[in-house]
Amino acid sequence: MAVDSQRLGAEGAFPHPEPVSWSSTKAASKPLLASLTVEHLLWGGVILLACLTRFWDLGHKALHHDESLHAYYSWVWAEGGTYTHDPLMHGPLLFFLNAFVYLIFGDSDATSRYAPAFFGVLIVSLPWLLRKPQFLGRWGALATGFLLLISPTILYQSRYIRHDVYTVFGVFLMFICFVRYLDTPDRKWLITLGATTAAMLANHEIIVANIVIFGGFLYAALLIERLRAWYPESRDLVISIIALHFFAAMALAAIVLFMPHTYVDRFLAIPWDRRGAESLPPTRANQNAYYKDLLTNWLIVGLVLVGVAFVVGLVYLLRSRKKTTADEEGWMDTAPENSVAHGVRAITGDYRGLFLAVAAFVGVFVFLFTSIFTNWHGLATSTIATDGTYLYWLGQHDVQRGEQPWFYFLVMLPQYEFLPITIGAGIALLTCWRGFRTLFWGKPAGPNFQFRMMLTVWFFGIFAVLSWAGEKMPWLIVHIALPGTILAGIVVGRLIERGVESFNARELGWTDMALFGGMVAAVIGWFLISARLTYGNFNAACAPTANARNGCRQVNDSDLNMWWVLIIPPLVFIAFLAYGLLKRGWRTTAIVGLTAAIMVLGLLEIRVGWRLAYANPDVPVEMMVYTQTAPDVKIGVEEANQISRTLAAEGDGEVLFDTNSLAWPYWWYLRHNEQANSFGGTTLPEDTDAAVIFIVSSSGNSQENAAVLANYTGVEHPFRWHFPEETYRFFALAPELRPGRSAWLSADQPHGPFDILKSMAESTAVLFSADGQQEMFRMIVYRDLNDELGYFSYQIYVRNDLLPLWAEIRY
User: Which 3 state secondary structure label does DSSP give 715?
Assistant: First the structure.
């Protein structure tokens, strides 16, 4: 496929390769069924699978703590109550969508997850909008849709009431709007971008990081495009603009790094905590005092002055260029089509489209944050309030809830997203290398370079931001998985295109098929042999409480003596590789090998996704399952509600629950029980005669409640449980956390950059031992853990005279 390297090198625009041939006919000339193509049928199959995988058995898993908050307040809104924006639970979009679902389908655990599941299907469908050859191409779009379908983390979050699945959909749609508008400046993409951006700002604060990443890339691309175009005739101007950017960056870095820490502390002394525990409570007086202090804070003043000086200097240099040109052309008038400058020029020339985009943004923003025009204070909490969206979460940065180390996502990604961290990261690095060659040596960067480069910056940028952020949670991994999956989809699409072309040209032979089958069989053989050799036995003595029952798995000595067998499948793989090199050449063999690798990694993702979403969705042998409500809670509350309904006619059946520690999800699960009452604190009411009492274990076992509970029989259950964090915390030093929360055990332990690298090398060295290989294989493939699951317990107390009824209901 020929590429105009001269045009690419000079302009950096999207080249337009010829599309792959698909058998299609215009729908207007034939009936609907006759107009269907293979492409339509494949897409229909992918979307049908997305519907099945997203909506299947949504009500089985108990609602997580956060899910119950989201579900309950959405239900209150749907029932005619009020909703006001609270940044603690992020933006109002989720609550609006859930309330809308409740109005139509009613409220239940399953319907609470309908909206996320629906948007999970839309995420799989979005690559359809990138079917043009200058983006993913038809095969690439289909491949990306399928990879999004099988992505374990995106599947899991599509069955979960959190904001992240909406952000994944929204940021993907924003990306599509950017690239489609640059390709063809159509007003619909501009308006869609405005409305989508507002909706995402009304959903979750992480969208700000995505906006900065996209904006930074587009600005850099615009700058590079223009400077390369001007360099032959205006070298002094180009050097001046580069110098201006360099000195501005150095000035900003100097201010941030060398400003006395007092000014930083003043800036971070945000009155965000309404309880006043972390800082001043956010009264109007201390909020105004904080705003006034910002005006005299030299950190803020310095940053603003550098920013203003930069803008003034840049405008001056651009105006000076216009004066020196022969004709009075604008600084973007010579921009080629499909370039960023061309898109900017189209926006500035479309006043009506820009007005409609701004109107769409403002309309959606105001509609959501004012709770459909019933809470005008939402405009403050969404923008300037110190306990609002941005300053609240900036104040949370140093709180570091979860205390996750900087390498948190580095150890999570290899457990779930195999294709993004291998194929996706590989094409991202290749794109960086080709961009470097194009920038400095003018060599062609390959097809769709700008599209791939934007994905690359997005992939590495969001990974860096989330790894730096103070609060790291497992659900945030989907924001890294999305661009990585799209990048992997590009590679898979190219391989399919190459395969179709080779098949049509009759270039594929039995040798290629044998190579592919042999490589896949060798890898699968290695997994089967590893499964057999690592099965071992359970030794209760090695960890008496591990996995709560069985101890830890240990490899048998006889299996360790057979460990050398694991080298046979790799040798077989190398033999097939050598045969391919001799018979088919390195290029064809590399393509076949890459295809085989993608096949195996895809099968692994399907297996991991099935286990995560269906087998263990509420069992924290998965790192993705974080402080999850235990299944016992849902079972117990359903039985308590049944007892309550049975006894209601007799004026009995009160259910009492502890709101000090068990409020969520009990407010949700007892919302329809009029006989459910709560008590605060740790002491039960002395006159209670409730049929069932739910109480945290520490309070149930206390001496103060012994007299009240004398007439009850109690059983302890896990309330929330979590993955054993010791499994990964000691992988490396994490000096940003307090000592003891990572391999950095004490304050006097060396913890410089080289010490961190050394700790990583020492942890990785375990993979060179048979025990280390066995433990890693069993954890990743089977989720066998040698550590005890952490949990927070509660007790169910049933009045003694009701034990027969309770047993009848339970059994």
Answer: strand
